[in-house]
Specification:
elongated
């Protein structure tokens, strides 16, 4: 696996970003936009996936990174659960549900595979600073 130098290169983060855009788009529609609790919660859970991947990448140790990836995976489960509520209340169509559900499952699988990779490569150095300059 080539060295990842920025969190934006992580496939799970890229998938989570697309999912978040999708969630924001369908939560602006009619009935969904008026259910402030569910709208805010599913948005926060979607953003949490990307945020925890990026925060973990920027953390100090590989163990911390793996912990943040676990939190991101848990947030993906939360989004899946909220998608069921959204569909049951007819806030989203079956097509929207299937598209978002497939995307969140993909992000979850990618995150799980990344965790497995990191756990099997304890010497993995995720961050290198080739030419950092610090001014005091």
């Amino acid at each position: 696996m080539p060295t990842i130098t920025r969190f934006e290169e992580i496939e799970a983060w890229q998938t989570a970003r697309e999912l978040t855009k999708l969630i924001y788009s369908f939560t602006e529609e009619a009935k969904f936009s008026r259910d402030f609790g569910l709208k805010d919660q599913i948005r926060r859970a979607g953003v949490s996936i990307m945020s925890n991947i990026s925060e973990g990448f920027e953390s100090q140790t590989q163990a911390q990174f793996i912990r943040y990836l676990g939190i991101a995976k848990a947030s993906a489960g939360e989004v899946r659960s909220q998608l069921y509520v959204s569909r049951d209340l007819d806030y989203i169509t079956q097509e929207q549900f299937l598209k978002a559900f497939a995307m969140v499952e993909k992000a979850s699988r990618q995150t799980a595979r990344f965790i497995s990779y990191l756990e099997s490569h304890p010497q993995f150095k995720k961050l290198k600073e080739d030419s950092a300059e610090y001014e005091v």
